[in-house]
Amino acid sequence: MAKEMIAMLLAGGQGSRLYALTQKLAKPAVPFGGKYRIIDFPLSNCINSGIDTVGILTQYQPLVLNEYIGNGQPWDLDRLFGGVHVLPPYQKASGSDWYKGTANAIYQNISFIERYDPEYVIILSGDQICKQDYSDFLRFHKEKNAEFSVAVMEVPWEDASRFGLMVADEDDRITEFQEKPKNPKSNLASMGIYIFNWDILKKYLEEDEQDPNSENDFGNNIIPNLLKDHRRMYAYHFNGYWKDVGTIPSLWEANMEVLDPEHSGINLFDDDWKIYSRNSGMSGHKISANAVVENSMITDGCRIKGTVKHSVLFSGVQVAEGAVVEDAVVMGGTVIESGAVVKHCIVAENVKIGENAVVGAMPKDGEQCVATIGSGVTIGAEAVIGPNAMISDNVEGGEEKW
């Protein structure tokens, strides 16, 4: 029973640019949008696109991520043949190796892919927020008779040098690849989402593994080698919402965009393309009579007695009477006590913010500062945490951090 296409999801990244948020957590497991984690998006895209076999390649801090994925039931991926499989590095007869790069991670799991004898393999990233129909991508790949296709988005020319860029002709055939060039020839940014014919992918993975000078990376090695050999390579234009949430400002911004789906393009209330997640199991939220809530997402188990404006509150957050939360992302289980002010920041899971403490501040013109509080931190009463702060340890009351 061969599968037409299976997905390989790269979820082993450290996410070091998220600092305090990923000290104990793999980047794909970072909470997003009130009730989700980042990995919910590619998993939901798979099942919505008719892909029922997904290998998830984990490495860094996998415990929470593995527990969250479980048997794949929330995404309808608990299948007898196929379904979701967590694929960490493991000891082999030839020795034990960590995944050395994106291409090497797939190479080490060739035997998993061959179990399903697919015609095509789609390579996905576990650290992007994107709603995409992979079946339309596959249709494009077939129509072009491609051997390799990459999803691309047009970016502003002034930003193009920050991306890997595909130069393509009028038929979308790729003629050149530029990795973060100073003088870009194109504004077609690679999304890091690829479809390969399996026989082509296997050939180039095996050749890459034999090259002692290779970085074992798709962008730096596999794609340039395909170009060198004049393979049939095409750029698939994607026009929906896509954001790499690899930095604190981009993660904060993407959460804020959830609150304005009409203008931002990310609609988590779309019944035609649902994003599935593991249920928190908590009771419904409760907003007290004297509370003030404006343009915010309040999820399961929240208890709101204070003021919440333009913020995203994850499950089980408590906001006491007299507390103010504004332009903030507050993750699950966090307690904000009376009189505390929390503004323009990201607060991780299970944080306690003491009475009359101040965390973050609204930015001045042109500033992009986002205060960040790591998981499990206690901010003491009267403490002041500045707008550029990155806190991963407990802070005593009255101490000021910038």
From TrEMBL:
The record marks Q59, W98 as: Could play a key role in the communication between the regulatory and the substrate sites. Residues 7-259 form the Nucleotidyl transferase domain. It catalyses: alpha-D-glucose 1-phosphate + ATP + H(+) = ADP-alpha-D-glucose + diphosphate. Alpha-D-glucose 1-phosphate binds at Y99, G164, E179, K180, S190. Keywords: ATP-binding, Carbohydrate metabolism, Glycogen biosynthesis, Glycogen metabolism, Nucleotide-binding, Nucleotidyltransferase, Transferase. It is an enzyme of class 2 (transferase). Residues 290-379 form the Glucose-1-phosphate adenylyltransferase/Bifunctional protein GlmU-like C-terminal hexapeptide domain. Pathway: Glycan biosynthesis; glycogen biosynthesis. InterPro entries: ADP-Glc_PPase, ADP_Glu_pyroP_CS, GlgC_bac, GlmU/GlgC-like_hexapep, NTP_transferase_dom, Nucleotide-diphossugar_trans, Trimer_LpxA-like_sf. It comes from the Bacteria. GO terms for molecular function: glucose-1-phosphate adenylyltransferase activity. Belongs to the bacterial/plant glucose-1-phosphate adenylyltransferase family. Homotetramer. Involved in the biosynthesis of ADP-glucose, a building block required for the elongation reactions to produce glycogen. Catalyzes the reaction between ATP and alpha-D-glucose 1-phosphate (G1P) to produce pyrophosphate and ADP-Glc. This is Glucose-1-phosphate adenylyltransferase.
